[in-house]
Amino acid sequence: MDNLTTFDLLQCMFEPTNDFTIIHPPNLPTLLPLDETNTKDIPEIVVSIQIAHESHPSTPAAHLIVSLPIGSGSNTTQQSDPIELSIKYEEWMTRQTHSELQALVENEGADVLGVIETVRDILGTYCSSSSSSTSNALGNDLLSKDSRELVPGGLADNAGNPLPQLKRFWFLLVSLSTRSKRGDLVEWAPSYGLTGFVMAGKPAVVCCEGDGPAIDRYIAEIKSVSWADVPSHQKKITLMLSEEIVGRAFTDMTEITHLFEMRGGRGNRPDLAQVRQWMESKKVGHVFNDVFGGANSAFGQS
Questions:
Q1: Is 66 within 8 Å of 47 (Cβ atoms)?
Q2: Residue 125 to residue 100: CA distance in whole angstroms
Q3: Confidence at residue 58, expressed as pLDDT on a 0 to 100 scale
């Protein structure tokens, strides 16, 4: 089944019940019905499918994000490029719940309908618990939604005990300029318990502090949802450095681009001397060379 056919099937099955949402491109409804002609300039279609247990409508719903390579991004004369699936992080989810659902999706491969049925069945198993114990039924991990709080040493439970695996990841991007995508990086971070900063420009930097797997899920959702309209070859984001830390240097996720003078012909190259000075003021200046020193080799530039 090619990806256009998969899109048509999902739309027919889930749109009548308002469980089908087109995320990208936003003008796609004006092109329906789709064919190889009117989608040739669309590299990818991204949709969201709401999943709930049919016999228990009060069960919290999950949303499956389906990324379907289309048009110039796929060879329409042969088998379509692989479909990418991910589970959106929901307010009711604990870290363990989201991780388990995401692992399930990845293990199922590109069988969209099979994934939907499996997730629906899993959601149904939560109905056996009373509402007072719903949070445990949805995943009783060390860091529930209600017990998560930031402390000087990182994430802690209700008893104030620091949780393990506190990391600081430094990502380098060849470029980051679009204001909305910078906003997504900042606004989506709290859902994953992350702190750090975003600096736009060329190069651009994203620093993330938090649980290692949570950082991975955060970056995966940014690439598959926020950057859904970005061609694959422009989505390159390189992990320059991973640190194990005992305490956070930042209290939230914020954009710092405005703090620095921009240079270069297009005014998009931050003054790295100012960046180094700022990093030193935050007690992270010791990694400046590790993060910025390999920029040229990371992106194949001479």
A1: yes
A2: 14
A3: 66
For the segment 212-271, what is each residue's pLDDT rounded down to a tens digit? 888 988 888 888 888 877 766 667 788 899 999 888 999 999 999 889 888 877 777 888
Using 50, 70 and 90 to split pLDDT, how confident is the model at 155?
very low
Scored b (16 or more CB within 10 A) or e, 258-291 reads eebeeeeeeebebebeebeebbeeeebeebbeeb
Residue 164 Cα to chain centre, angstroms: 22
Whether 299 and 238 have beta carbons less than 8 Å apart is answered as yes
Written as six digits, the tokens of 92 are: 């009711």
**Amino acid in position 202:** K
DSSP string, 161-220: PBPS-EEEEEEEES-B--HHHHHHHHHHGGGGT-EEEEE-BSSEEEEEEEEHHHHHHHHH
Between CA 42 and CA 300 the distance in angstroms is 27
Cα–Cα distances (Å) from 200 to 105, 180, 270, 271, in that order, read 32, 12, 8, 12
The Cβ of residue 215 has, within 10 Å, a number of other Cβ atoms equal to: 25
The residues, any chain, with a CB within 8 Å of residue 6's CB and separated by 6 or more, are 68, 83, 112
- Look up residue 147 and give its two tokens: 């017990």
pLDDT tens profile 162-215:
455 689 999 988 778 788 888 899 999 988 889 999 998 888 899 999 988 889
Position 229, amino acid: D
Positive or negative: CA dihedral 213, 216, 217, 218: positive
Work out the end-to-end distance of the chain between its first and last CA atoms, rounded to an integer number of angstroms: 43
Q: CA-CA distance, 247 to 82, in Å (whole number)?
A: 40
Cis peptide before 162 (omega within 30 of 0): no
